[in-house]
Amino acid sequence: MPASRDEVRTNLRAIREAIRSAAERAGRDPASVELVAAAKMVSPEPIAWAAEAGVRSIGHNYARELRASRSALPDLDVRWHYIGALQAGTAQQVADAADVVQTVGGERAARRLAGRAARSGRVLDVLIEVDFTGARSGVPPERAPATADLVTALEGVRLRGLMTIPPRTPTAEEARPWFVRLRELRDRLRRTYPNVLELSMGMSLDYQVAVEEGATMVRIGTALFGPRAATGTRERPAP
Prior knowledge:
The protein is α/β, with parallel strands linked by helices. The chain is built from nine helices and eight strands.
């Protein structure tokens, strides 16, 4: 069952406390970690509750849901993130609705996204999605430098960092090596692109480990909004 207004507030407090504890264990400032509320299949009302409680970043997996939420909540003081697989066919819709796109990978979709943003006079912050296993969307780590070269040459987008979804693991601790690899890749890219700072990694089941390994964004849905209804798809895990 989806969380009530009070439950969203209670869940948010618990998540923030967990982020604080994880950051302190790693000797980090908890304020350096941005909570992106992953609102896949979440109606506008709970999104508004989260924003009312202080959440300033909302993520959507689907272009149509992103557009619908932004249209229903035009005055919400948040940044809208696109966190679903970026496809060439919907890249222009994403460019119209998102402030941040976390899943840049393929060249065709990247060019369409950037072109639409540039024509609209917008500059979108983007992250490159890195796929370490070949099982998801995104680019393999060895292609990340070339993708960074492409993105930084495009008008309408501004490269800010990297994102990943690790393989499903029995425990959060087993996801740690993937987070370490993304951080190390980010650090190598920064030698060429110093503004590549963001690490979007960690979801409801493993975000504390991700914070310990340097996450600057965590994408949290179920732990904040409650469980979603089954969708019948195995495309991407619920955050």
